[in-house]
Amino acid sequence: MKAIVCKEFAPVEQLEFTDVPAPSAEKGQVVINVEAAGVNFPDSLLVQGLYQMKPELPFIPGSEVAGTVAEVGEGVPHLKVGQNVIGLCMLGGYAEQVALPASHTIPIPDGIPLDEASALVTAHATAHHALKQRAQLSADDVLVVTGAAGGTGLAAVQIGKIMGAKVIAVCSTDDKCEVAKQNGADICINYSNEDLKAAIKEHTNGKGADVVYECVGGDMFHTCSRSMAWNGRLLVIGFAGGEIPKFPVNLALVKGFAVLGVFWGSFTQHQPQDFMANMKELLTWYVQGKIKVVVDERFSLENAIAAINKVTDRKVKGKVVIKP
């Protein structure tokens, strides 16, 4: 079968589109025919050796897929061949097939297209966990979302509105602001032509943000850390801007806010029951039309490098999907 293979930690352009052995289902596993794979910012970090974990080489990147069950291993009574599923594979998704534990395979309700299902998990599940378990967002809160036109930013905008908060989106262009507003943002700040700190102060009546969903890092993080309300929660999601900021902890002391790390992958391992409850809620919201996946562009497997670069260059509005 065809796959995208990382043979050494190097720039994305050195990934290879090549033939690899097809997987088989061992005990407790299934094999999925991959119809679509979601592209996420950490995929680029992984292949460069810059992520929190470094996979054993060679490996196939890609952490979330959707498709049909091709083979069911021993001891898997709840899944059957031909069933549409979402797979949380961590690695191996950029391929025509992937084997993964049945425990990481979720049946898809009718009415969810496979390409949208493949892009639903990481972005929306991260935002859901961040706002529900970490920030404990309430209807009285003002939520600021940076990178609000990206995959996980748009998910945070949608989920923030479902949870009743006032949502302020932060984007770099008017086009991205429009996408954020179409997905539920009450207000959008274009930081390219507005002073972000002053705008947050204005739109919160001088109080500051109760919760910040911060995806960008660098100067964006520093500005948000100076724009927090008392008892605020600053969520560290990632560093799409490239710079991991150094945080002056005296700010948290003086302004009385908390800095909370959000690592969804670890959450799924440490709190599996909460994770599955979250996924059930997300899929219910999707079927009810309360959340949606905005697929910006679909790429062939052969063009996976272009797909990854579109995400890392922050040119995407919503999600990018690879179609093997």
UniProtKB/TrEMBL annotation:
Keywords associated with the record: Oxidoreductase
- The EC number of this protein is 1.-.-.-
| CDD domains to which the protein is assigned, alphabetical | QOR1
Domain Enoyl reductase (ER) residue range list: 10-322
Pfam families xrefs:
ADH_N (PF08240), ADH_zinc_N (PF00107)
Molecular function terms from GO: oxidoreductase activity
**What PANTHER family is this protein classified in?**
QUINONE OXIDOREDUCTASE-LIKE PROTEIN 2, SHORT-CHAIN DEHYDROGENASE/REDUCTASE
Q: What is this protein called?
A: NADPH:quinone oxidoreductase family protein
Native organism is Brumicola blandensis
